[in-house]
Design goal:
The complex is a heterodimer. By secondary structure, chain A is α/β, with parallel strands linked by helices. Chain A contains 8 helices and 8 strands. Chain A has one domain: Aconitase, domain 4 (Alpha-Beta Barrel), CATH 3.20.19.10. In chain A, strands 1-6-7-8 form a 4-stranded antiparallel β-sheet. The chains are: A alpha/beta, B alpha/beta.
């Protein structure tokens, strides 16, 4: 996973609420056995409009996306995070996310920043013409117009993003504890193993 | 004396392997369900890092998302090839990965094959008080039998395959209490559509919802699975319904369920899985069952719910300015005008199926409405897709398949089908579908498709009248 700390660049002012994962990546793009190339199908229904935000010259390769409430709701498909990553997006800024999406995002080196709607409204204004700066270490989003918004993030997620950590390697350090749990489970609730 | 705990807290506490200083817990996963679409990259990841599957005995794989629902065997009993090469490749990958890692595998032509969320409870693989995950958001479904079950992404699928655990933050808890008796024609699907309309698509975000109250207790296990299935549509990662005698009766004797003395020990533990008196939830919503009508969605978010007797709302009627914008966009996409009576909306497609509504009770409810009637002429496509081979066999033993086919509906092989249109079952652009599935998102049932979410009985009613219909008018 590519570590993430400072991200500066144009931010796509999408702004919509309830952007579901079927909108981010429709199901027919899920018929693949690899993680690559999802960007081609990203936001397909929106990009049918030739004047869509994503394909405007100024937003090509923009590293930040600004959206409304409940971003990434719906399906658990991690393809949504892969599609955003493939578009070059490293940060999403929204008032709220679906739980599954925000987890998937972090596991793919994408930072889901939570800011109140008033901050989103202001950033949407700036993003139309100017870049936005995201600083994960100091948990701030700033603009060249003296805007400064701070955000909260779970410290574990923050560490994973900054260090680009692979969660499985981390969990493997708990191998003995998992083994102990399994022994205890077999002793206390032996019927938990599938019967057949 | 221990602090009173909610059902969620009891299951969570029983699965903590390790707690980190920041509150994150390493949670043991009792059951892992795997399907063909979200697993190939996880197995590839294992292989690339030289890892293996820690607990293949707790893992069950079954293809469901992109298998065709047309015949899978020719007259001689040979397997028919899958026309779409990408779907065929995903299926082939699962068929190779499952045995390679020693994972139980129900193949596409096995009698038990079906939608993973139908198969799990049906096989007794899903049990109360277990933690269940699957790379599919409708894993919430298994909460209907009292399991803490939730969808995960592919990186987490890989994590569970490798370690049988997940690193999780505890969720907040929410009680949705539905008290009283529902009226005629009101089903589990109408209850959950009404709940979703009430709390909103993000109402349960960050929470696990426990459904309580007399209207929930009165539901069969099939109905409870329908309710919990759509917890995710209200933003909650998981739903829960405390297990009771109805649950135990349903599970007893199923292939993977405990047997003999193990069964008695299991039931004794399951009986402790209720929210203690005095335990508190972070959020409580109370709904009067008498307020729930047969329901239907008008827009492109599952929160866009009205009673079938209602009208398409005016976007200006919403207080939230962003909802006004979203509603206007939805109506443009759906081709609907504010003020139109829902019962005047004509329908060209019918889909009865999906992990929400494809169990035997759903088949019976739909058949009861179409029996002795014919599909309306303007309905071009109407398919009934049972949730599993066992549901299909049961329905056929009861003669339900003939009721459907005599009415002009197609009777198909089990799978996810037109719920997400990954297989050939799609709704054409600009056309409407009365669908028993769970999502009415833009393009969900095919590019440009327009979905109206309803119960099986309501979908059946639309099939015979050709428009959205109050099922109560067709009930004897």
């Amino acid at each position: 996973m590519t570590p993430l700390n400072q991200v500066e660049g144009r931010a796509i002012p999408l702004g919509l609420k309830n952007v579901d994962t079927d909108v981010i990546i429709p199901a027919h793009w899920l018929k693949t056995t690899t993680r690559e190339g999802m960007g081609r199908g990203a936001f397909e229904s929106i990009r049918k409009d030739p004047d869509n935000l994503f394909d405007r010259a100024e937003f090509k390769g923009a590293p930040i996306l600004i959206a409304g409430d409940n971003f990434g709701c719906g399906s658990s498909r991690e393809h949504a995070a892969w599609a955003l990553g493939d578009l070059g997006i490293r940060v999403v800024i929204a008032p709220s996310y679906s739980d599954i999406f925000s987890g998937n995002a972090v596991k793919n080196g994408i930072l889901p920043v939570v800011l109140p709607q008033a901050a989103i409204d202001r950033l949407m204004e700036v993003a139309a013409t100017d870049p936005v700066h995201v600083d994960l270490e100091h948990q701030t989003v700033t603009t060249q117009f003296q805007d400064r918004f701070t955000f909260e993030i779970d410290p574990f997620r923050k560490m994973c993003l900054i260090e680009g950590l692979d969660e499985i390697s981390l969990t493997e350090k708990s191998d003995a504890a998992i083994g102990d749990y399994e022994k205890q489970l077999d002793a206390e609730r032996p019927w938990m193993r599938p019967a057949a | 004396m221990t602090r009173p705990r909610t059902l969620y807290e009891k299951i969570w506490d029983a699965h903590v392997v390790e707690q980190r200083p920041d509150g994150t817990c390493l949670i043991f996963i009792d059951r892992h369900l795997v399907h063909e679409v979200t697993s190939p990259q996880a197995f590839a990841g294992l292989r690339a890092n030289g890892r293996t599957v820690r607990r293949p005995d707790l893992t069950l794989a079954v293809p469901d998302h992109n298998v065709p629902t047309t015949a899978r065997l020719d007259a001689a009993g040979n397997r028919l090839p899958i026309a779409d090469p990408e779907s065929a490749a995903q299926l082939a990958a699962l068929e190779k990965n499952a045995p390679e890692y020693g994972i139980r595998y129900i193949d596409a032509v096995a009698p038990e094959q079906g939608i993973v969320h139908v198969v799990g409870p049906e096989q007794g693989f899903s049990l109360p008080g277990t933690t269940i995950v699957c790379g599919d958001s409708h894993t919430a479904c298994h909460g209907g039998i009292g399991a803490l079950a939730f969808g995960i992404g592919t990186s987490e699928v890989e994590h569970v395959l490798a370690t049988q655990t997940l690193l999780l933050q505890p969720s907040k808890t929410m009680e949705v209490r539905v008290e009283g008796e529902v009226g005629p024609g009101v089903t589990a699907k109408d209850i959950i559509l009404h709940i979703t309309g009430t709390i909103g698509a993000a109402g349960g975000t960050g929470h696990v919802i426990e459904y309580t109250g007399s209207a929930i207790r009165a539901l069969s296990v099939e109905g409870r699975l329908t309710v919990s299935n759509m917890a995710i549509e209200g933003g909650a990662r998981a739903g829960l319904i405390a297990p009771d005698e109805t649950t135990f009766e349903y599970l007893k004797g199923r292939p993977y369920a405990p047997k003999g003395a193990d069964w008695d020990a299991a039931v004794a533990w399951w009986k402790s899985l209720t929210t203690d008196p005095g335990a508190t939830y972070d959020k409580v919503v109370v709904i009067d069952a008498a307020d729930i009508a047969p329901s239907v969605t008008w827009g492109t978010s599952p929160e866009d719910v009205v009673p079938i007797t209602g009208v398409v709302p005016d976007p200006a009627s919403f207080a939230d300015p962003s909802k006004q914008v979203a509603a206007a966009k939805s109506l443009a996409y759906m081709g609907l005008e504010p003020g139109t009576r829902m019962q005047d909306v004509s329908i060209e497609n019918i889909f009865i199926g999906s992990c929400t509504n494809s169990r035997i009770e759903d088949m019976r409810a739909a058949a009861a409405i179409v029996k002795g009637r014919k599909k309306a002429d303007n309905v071009k496509w109407a398919i009934v897709v049972p949730g599993s081979g066992l549901v299909k066999a049961q329905a056929e033993a009861e003669g339900l398949d003939r009721i459907f086919t005599e009415a002009g509906l197609e009777w198909r092989e089990p799978g996810c089908s037109a719920c997400l249109a990954m297989n050939p079952d799609k709704v054409s652009a600009g056309e409407r579908c009365a669908s028993t599935s769970n999502r009415n998102f833009v393009g969900r049932q095919g590019p440009g498709s327009r979905t109206h979410l309803v119960s099986p009985a309501m979908a059946a009613a639309a099939a015979v009248t050709g428009k959205l219909t109050d099922v109560r008018e067709l009930m004897a």
